[in-house]
Amino acid sequence: MNPQSPDTDLSFDVTEADFRRTVLERSLDVPVLVDCWAPWCAPCRNLKPVLEKLVQAYGGSFVLAKLNTDEAPQISAALQIRSIPLVVLFIGGKPVDQFMGALPEAQVRAFLDKHIGEQMSEAEALRRDAAEAPDAGAAEAMLRDALSLEPANAEVAIDLATRLLDRAAFDDATQLLEAVPQASRNDRHAALLKRIQLAKNRPDGDPKALAERIAANSKDFEARFALAALQVYEGDFNAAFDQLLEVVMRDRDEWREKARLQLVEWFDVCPDAAAVSRGRRYLGMYLN
Prior knowledge:
With 288 residues, the chain is an alpha/beta fold.
């Protein structure tokens, strides 16, 4: 099996009409990872950036085909899809393995490594090891070494900035992010800048007094927003999501829409994928 040439798209959409050509036939030359998703599936949205990041990191050792199951009933039936996200690996024209659910990056890597030989630089290898390191200090040191090897590697820089932000080194993280070339900036880069802005600017208000106002009047939406902002500042996104979800559930007008918009914004910057998944699930439930 030959890896893809640099000018070949590593990630693409696939339909029932071209499934044979783009998946079955193509898997004769290079492994094809098929991401079975749907627009309404929140875990699918969480898994998508992980898969797209890994297909780049593996440097052409496999390609990623994204199948919208709502538009592919025949393929869905052939794959016996019962739940999504479902990810199926095709090699040699046949499915060889699969996993279900929005697995974390380390588990997806382990799945790929069972079947696919990685082709990555020393910097990318250090980045992978840093992601799996149990010690935060060791992980940060690995990322610094990786960045010294490849100063233009935006993903390494963003990973390192995330580590710096986790230990409240806001200025260092900001400096690192500002050094990332404009063309290499992505959604992760933007989300980290928003996190820094949230963490550096403490909102006004006394959490205890705000909680007392809410206890006295469950529809004191102003207090709920103020308390949620303080909780985000403290890094407790779950608690903040709960406050605004209460607003969505209890109001049907202006406050509900304001809470929905704020939740969507915070979903993009929250570092806890499980909290985001839970928040999206309840938001969808309360809006219906």
